[in-house]
Design a protein that fits this description.
alpha/beta, 3-stranded mixed sheet, 3-methyladenine DNA Glycosylase II, Chain A, domain 3, 39% helix, 445 residues, TIM Barrel, Rossmann fold
């Protein structure tokens, strides 16, 4: 039976030493009760408390870290089956495969492409999280993994089934804490030895869920702590079912052999199929998806799905309601307003930047709603817009009295002109992508 935060707190040292990373023992106890912290994260806890709480307080899904300190990728320790129950905590990471068939120069070039796959979207940095290096079939696997480890800005996954090759490759780069992949029934004993002796995370796959549970239990019994459940994508429906069953067994039944995050290696005939399949698994329980391509359109599509799924559905995604200056505006620059919903604001901001027209953007607090939703929900009005612009002292920044309003709110025009100093209200475009043409043509004319 799960213990409450108070029951856990009573067995803690109650010193508020902060060694767990939280400000108080009570805060730590609440995190343990929510399965977001393990009792082992409290160094001063007594052996008696460990014995009393170890099984009850252990998160049902293990937190697994790949990579060295400073650029680790973390997955696992999820707590719910469905995002709306609470939220998903650790976003799915994209890994790009570096095939063994590439020459050394081509492999390094692809590594550089992976390093450069960094994007900005609605105020967040999105990037490829891992480089998946195939070691079987390389002319010199050790040299290959060492050169990529030296060049890579992201953690490594080492892909191979040959135990002797994998052992040499891991020995060469064990300091960067790579993920070992693929351990199966044919090589599990040696892969367990490699992972346990070098303290590396191990990705395990099985021909069935029964075999997979046997292999993970065997690895745990022999000292492997960090594991990932691995699946292929050849049968989309079967893989989704397997991911769902293992997650449910972990979170709902506390079935320890499946108490690990999952990854899916994507195999597809073309980039379009790869994008769709990877996006599906990123949304449906994969902690890592391995893809082949580095095309920005493909990676950003998958990343956008991940970003959307892993936002907190109970907390509006907002920006600060204030006056933003884009491109060093002056007294002759245009003034416009929008809402504080992140996607709305950053869409407007990016299009203003693209226009090359320095602009003031007044952000109105709508409790994280977009323009139409805010209007429908009575979170924005002409009166509120006027008051916000006055509070932000926008009129002191410019010498004109022209205000651009969203094209979806033309009804505000007359009231703003009648009740404020903004005597000329221009109805802007309805869509953000139309802003550059509006600023360069309509505004300047």
């Amino acid at each position: 039976m799960a213990l409450t935060g108070m029951q856990i707190y009573k067995l803690l040292p109650k010193t508020n030493c902060k060694e767990c990373g939280l400000p108080t023992c009570m805060a730590f106890a609440m995190q343990v009760a929510a399965k977001q912290k393990s009792l082992t994260d409290c160094p001063p806890v007594s052996d008696e408390a460990k014995a009393a709480l170890s099984e009850a307080s252990t998160p049902p899904m293990k937190l697994v870290k790949v990579g060295p300190s400073g650029k680790q990728f973390e997955i696992g320790q999820e707590t719910v089956m469905f995002r709306h129950d609470e939220k998903f905590h650790r976003p799915c990471g994209i890994a790009v495969r570096i095939p063994a068939s590439l020459s050394d120069d081509e492999a390094i070039a692809k590594c550089e492409l992976i390093n450069g796959s960094v994007f900005q979207r609605v105020g967040e940095t999105l990037k490829v999280e891992l480089a998946a290096v195939e070691v079987d079939g390389c002319d010199n696997p050790v040299s290959r993994v060492k050169s990529i480890a030296d060049k890579s800005n992201v953690p490594l996954i080492l892909i191979g089934k040959d135990a002797s090759i994998m052992k040499d490759a891991c020995e060469a780069v064990k300091d960067v804490y790579p993920l070992i992949y693929r351990a199966d029934a044919s090589n599990i004993d040696v892969f367990i030895e490699i992972a346990s002796s070098m303290k590396l995370p191990l990705a395990v796959t099985g021909s069935s869920l029964e075999e997979l549970s046997d292999l993970t239990q065997k690895a745990k019994d022999k000292g492997v702590e960090d594991m990932i459940l691995s699946f292929g994508s050849e049968d989309l429906g079967d893989t989704v079912r397997s991911l769902t069953i293992t997650r449910r067994a972990s979170l709902r039944k506390n079935f320890r052999p499946f108490g690990y995050p999952a990854m899916v290696e994507i195999k597809a005939e073309n980039s379009n199929d790869e994008t769709v399949i990877a996006s599906a698994f990123a949304a449906k329980y994969a902690g890592i998806v391995i893809v082949d391509n580095t095309e920005p359109w493909e990676l950003l599509t998958i990343m956008t799905v991940v970003q959307n799924v892993y936002t907190d559905p109970q907390v509006p995604n907002t920006v600060e309601a204030k006056l933003y200056e884009i491109g060093n505006p002056d007294e002759n620059s245009p003034v416009m307003f929008t809402t504080n919903f992140s996607l709305t604001y950053f869409s407007v901001e990016s299009e203003v930047e693209r226009s090359k027209v320095p602009t003031y953007i007044c952000v109105v607090d709508t409790e994280g709603l977009g323009v139409l939703n805010a209007y429908a929900g009575d979170k924005i009005s002409a009166e509120k817009v006027v008051k916000t612009i006055q509070e932000q002292k926008v009129a002191e920044k410019v010498k004109h009295k022209k205000l651009i309003i969203p094209g979806l709110l033309p009804i505000f025009r007359a009231e703003i002109e009648d009740t404020s100093e903004w005597s000329e209200v221009l109805i802007g475009p309805e869509k953000a992508r139309e802003i550059p043409a509006f600023l360069t043509n309509t505004w300047k004319s």
